[in-house]
Design brief:
- The protein is an alpha+beta fold.
- The protein has a domain at 6-106: F0F1 ATP synthase delta/epsilon subunit, N-terminal (ATP Synthase, domain 1, Sandwich), CATH 2.60.15.
- The chain has one helix spanning 93-133; strands at 6-11, 16-30, 33-37, 44-57, 62-75, 79-84, 87-90.
- It has a five-stranded mixed barrel.
- The chain is elongated, with a radius of gyration of 24 Å.
């Protein structure tokens, strides 16, 4: 009797982090929460936030990969592929979870900076519009970026 297994591939644009046959289970996390993939799983495609993907091989050993986010695809109930920008494979779950917390903090900081810049650009655009709508305003050159009135 043959036991059904999965093929797991985790790749970045520059390298294959994991190429594993004989995987009995994969556990991942998307925005809706944690989920598992077993052989025979329905086709699926989901976006992964910074998180740790776990898998178990036929010998019952569990392995881990911390991701900076990515896309997970289950195909034909037998193949799980993860594409990510950056990932770290390791056997120390605590260390990898710390790395994921750091990745999430970096992501939140980048989002905060982007929101601040977006607000700054929006305010500058509104000031320019108001400047041009003033009665008797003669159009002139725009002030350099960052020096808006």
């Amino acid at each position: 009797m043959t036991v059904a297994t999965l093929r797991l591939d985790i790749s970045t644009p520059s390298t294959a982090l994991v190429r594993a046959d004989g995987v009995t289970a994969v556990r991942a996390e998307d925005e809706s929460g944690a989920f598992g993939v077993l052989p025979g799983h329905a086709d699926l495609m989901t976006v992964l936030p910074p998180s740790v993907v776990r898998w178990r091989n036929g010998a019952g050993e569990t392995h881990y990969c911390a991701l900076r986010g990515g896309v997970l695809i289950v195909t034909g109930g037998a193949r799980v592929s993860v594409a990510c920008r950056h990932g770290v494979v390791g056997d120390d779950l605590d260390a990898l979870e710390d790395k994921v917390r750091s990745m999430r903090a970096d992501e939140l900081e980048a989002e905060r900076i982007a929101r601040v810049e977006q607000t700054r650009l929006h305010a500058r655009a509104v000031r320019q519009i108001l400047r041009f709508l003033k009665p008797g305003h003669a159009p002139g050159p725009l002030p350099p970026h960052g020096n808006a009135p």
